[in-house]
Amino acid sequence: MGQKKLIKFAAIKAYENVLEYPQGMPGKWDAFFQELAKGTINISLADLAVSQPTKPLVLELACGRGEYAVGLGRLFANQNFIGLDIKGNRIWKGASIANRDGLKNVAFVRTQIDQVTQYFAKEEVNEIWITFPDPQLRLSKAKRRLTHPKFLRLYQQFLTPGGIVHLKTDSPNLFLFTKTVIELYGLSLITATDNLYSSEFMQSDNWEDRYAIKTYYEGLNIASSNRIHYIQFKLDKELPIELEEKLKEIIAEFEITETHDSLARNGKQAME
Q1: What is the separation, in whole angstroms, between the first and last Cα of the chain?
Q2: What is the number of other CB atoms lying within 10 angstroms of the CB of residue 207?
Q3: Residue 271 resides in a domain
Q4: 30, 85, 134, 170: which is the annotated catalytic residue?
Q5: DSSP collapsed to 3 states, 46-58
Q6: Which carries the bigger pLDDT value, residue 237 or residue 264?
Q7: Which residues contact 109 (CB under 8 A, 6 or more apart)?
Q8: CATH number of the domain where residue 25 is located
Q9: In DSSP terms, which residues pair with 167 in a beta bridge?
Q10: Bridge-partner residues for 127, per DSSP?
Q11: Does 270 fall in a domain?
Q12: Which pLDDT does position 262 carry in this prediction?
């Protein structure tokens, strides 16, 4: 491991706004953010009280450097935001900026996304942002997509009833896949566009300032699509497992096989 990564890993261990694999956190996030706002040093997670949230809690999954969690924290002081990612050296960037700018409503959790239900209580989270995740383009990897029903069922365990999910991606296939999931399971579609920054959409009633937050990966344009796709929907229906075979049949008609890994080998993804 490089020296720079070691320095970043050591730094986040001392940050009050970064928790690594925290135990016993479901139901305690409101209390945690209250302590963070007070400037409490060495917050004792065990001593935090379980309580109903007093502020909306928003989660950014696979947050990378945390640009969205930080950007949303600046825009909405009356809400709390958590960025979740397994890469500590990436989390360091967003956590450092939040500390520098005094954003006491932004925190980060280092863990795997498939373990996310361990950290949040039922109906504790209001919204989820998924920003430029690996689209897992091979059909054999479809279940790794963060908008696959397998993951959506996890989110339903801690989202408020009808909780909202946002996806921002440069992958046309992930966008189309997500729309297919929404249609197949009868979820409520709120907003969808295959060209987020088009003048038409930006001048429409659907545009919001939070859509303009840009991540590091957005700038890379890994998919070379020259368009940013955005979709917002509610997780307001059950997701029967038996429909997954039908989903597989549908997406097999439009899937492609090129992956992030192959793009990286072609020199289109910047090395970290």
Answers
A1: 12
A2: 16
A3: no
A4: 134
A5: HHCCCCCCCCCEE
A6: 237
A7: 18, 19, 20, 22, 82, 83, 84, 119
A8: 3.40.50.150
A9: 130, 231
A10: 58, 164
A11: no
A12: 42
pLDDT digits (tens, 9 = 90+) for 50-95: 998 999 999 999 999 999 999 999 999 999 999 999 998 899 999 9
Residue 8 lies in a domain: yes
CB 167 within 8 Å of CB 135:
no
Q: Is residue 272 part of a domain?
A: no
Mean pLDDT in residue range 188-201:
96
- Residue among 94, 118, 120, 127 at smallest CA distance from 32: 120
DSSP symbol at 15: -
Q: Which domain holds residue 39?
A: 3-265
Which phi and psi (to 5°) does residue 23 adopt?
-100, 145
Q: How many residues does the chain have?
A: 272
163 in Cβ contact with 200 (< 8 Å) = no
pTM exceeding 0.85: yes
Distance CA 88, CA 9 (A): 6
Active site residue 134: yes
86-124 pLDDT, tens digit per residue, is: 998 899 999 999 999 999 999 999 999 999 999 999 999
Q: How many domains does the chain have?
A: 1
Identify residue 15 by its one-letter amino acid code.
Y
